[in-house]
Amino acid sequence: MNAQQDLAARHEAVDRDPESYWLEEARRLDWDTFPTKANRSSFDEADFGIRWFEDGELNVTVNCLDRHLAERGDKTAIVFEGDEPGEGYSLTYAQVHEEVCRFANALKDCGVGKGDRVAIYMPMIPEAAFAMLACARIGAIHSVVFGGFSPDSLADRIQDCGAKMLITADEGSRGGKRIPLKANADKALEKSPVEAVIMVKRTGGDVAFVEGRDHWWHVLREKVSADCPPEKMSAEDPLFILYTSGSTGKPKGVMHTTGGYLYWVTATFDMLFGAKDNDVFWCTADVGWVTGHSYVVYGPLANGATTVMFDGVPNYPDFGRFWETSNRLGVTIFYTAPTAIRALMREGDDWVKRHDRSQIRLLGTVGEPINPEAWNWYHEVVGDGRCEIVDTWWQTETGGALIAPVPGAVETKPGSATKPLPGVYPALVDNEGKLLEGATSGNLVITQSWPGQMRGVWGDEDRFFQTYFTTYPGRYFTGDGCRRDDDGYYWITGRVDDVINVSGHRMGTAEVESALVAHPKVAEAAVVGMPHDVKGQGIYAYVTLNAGEPESEELRKELRQFVRQEIGPIASPDVIQFAPALPKTRSGKIMRRILRKIAEGEPDKVGDTSTLADPAVVDALIEGARSA
Ligand code: WT7
């Protein structure tokens, strides 16, 4: 069977008899108890719930490590590439297995057990993967917090999930700069204490050490056994919590489970990247995001592939870093974000062409819509027109890719994530929820559950249903707008809710607003997305100052700095426009549509303003936008 026939057979099989298809597919994993049931999910309010392979039992690390030892024990599992080119090393499956077992025993010695939450705030070093896998080994639930988040953001997440322990490093090192992870962690722990801290020595920088609470990993490592039997877990036991931004309130703890999630990342990694024994797979995402969970750690390791962990940035020491490193490490499959592609494209082809890329055979992209210009550059310049482009659409909530071209089976079109994978049923609906047929645009929903779907919002049972299943009852709402063409291809157009996608990172406008209004000089703030050449979207903030507070360039800087401190550098507004007033309806609701149009530089398209309490506000805003 060729790839095309195989894919067609899968679609046919899952449409015809889903239960048999999924149970057959479950054989991709090693189970302690093989499941007898596949899908027991409902999107309806009356019997709402998502459950997959529910009577199955397994351990994630057995699948990611133990089962490879007999045949691939000496195969490279993780290639670590540090911030400085060539600063790194490789670890075999046998070595990673040992480190994970040791780390798991260290967690146990610190009092962590099944069901306990462990926060991880780390650089992109192998120990971050050890820490995640160590949790999975003993049934603890990890919550990785991106190392770029502020102490406050870390504290909120620790508190929300009730983490018992924090795993961190002394410092990170990115683009030649040090990142004070432990110092940030110490600040966070003042607000949200934990029982124990394990700290990995990365840079050897000077850090505080709290006796009785803090432990050095390299010290613990010597004291513990390298033998740690895996905990047998139910398929529906939580594997991890990962916080992500929504359109309202604080980030929510997206919860994924053991069986369904692991199956989905295992299957999609295999279908989309099909890593063979001599492949080296490099996904440039940080483990602080879902892409790092699914396609740096769990997906590749469950498939016995070689995965690269990169602790640097695309422009350090120069703009050729990705290609120099790919060549040196023998990377054959490369997966990155459109924002990185656009940033590098801007620097010219020479940075690419000076490095041999002939070993690369597949190029992937994820995180935001990729514009055809960037797609073509990736294809022609980076891939020399040779490599297929795998544009994968998915979300933190989906666990792994849902819409993406299976190489060799689905013809690509620049800018389209193409078609759904087997067992994924997307649909487009209008704002009233009416199902749209044929070539059209609408809101993207998924009509049936898939194994990698999130199972809940941590600590808030109702929020999962309320957030995703009430806008269009009976369907999962993605929050994305989408077009479907005559060939049935999907073209994601971006978020239609109050979420913005900055360099592939998700930000809730509400979060940035609440950071801004926390500043003593700010009375009110409204945040919207704006088009940005490199980042995809930038953050545009309208800020109303307290009465009598003078506007100044300095205050703009101060506000940016303030948001960085409150949330992290990724939330820093690109534009701050001081606005004497915001456009509100008579009932006091801010009309964001108007703010979006002004931020997009299309003030003539603000539309009907007659329902505003004071329509004159709009002219003042348009005037103000010119100088912002
Ligand atoms: C949002 C999810 C998927 C892991 C990284 C981001 C946008 C993601 C694509 C793509 C167009 C995309 C969507 C989605 N998005 N991939 N290939 N084409 N848009 O995960 O932080 O949960 O963000 O990213 O808008 O809803 P996330």
Automatic annotation (TrEMBL):
Q: What is the protein named?
A: Acetyl-coenzyme A synthetase
- Catalytic activity, as annotated: acetate + ATP + CoA = acetyl-CoA + AMP + diphosphate
* Domain spans labelled Acetyl-coenzyme A synthetase N-terminal: 11-64
Q: Which gene encodes it?
A: acs
Q: What does this protein do?
A: Catalyzes the conversion of acetate into acetyl-CoA (AcCoA), an essential intermediate at the junction of anabolic and catabolic pathways. AcsA undergoes a two-step reaction. In the first half reaction, AcsA combines acetate with ATP to form acetyl-adenylate (AcAMP) intermediate. In the second half reaction, it can then transfer the acetyl group from AcAMP to the sulfhydryl group of CoA, forming the product AcCoA.
One annotated GO molecular function is: acetate-CoA ligase activity
What sections of the protein cross the membrane? none
Species source reads: Qipengyuania gelatinilytica
Q: Does the keyword Ion transport apply?
A: no
Keyword Hydrolase listed: no
> What modifications follow translation?
Acetylated. Deacetylation by the SIR2-homolog deacetylase activates the enzyme.
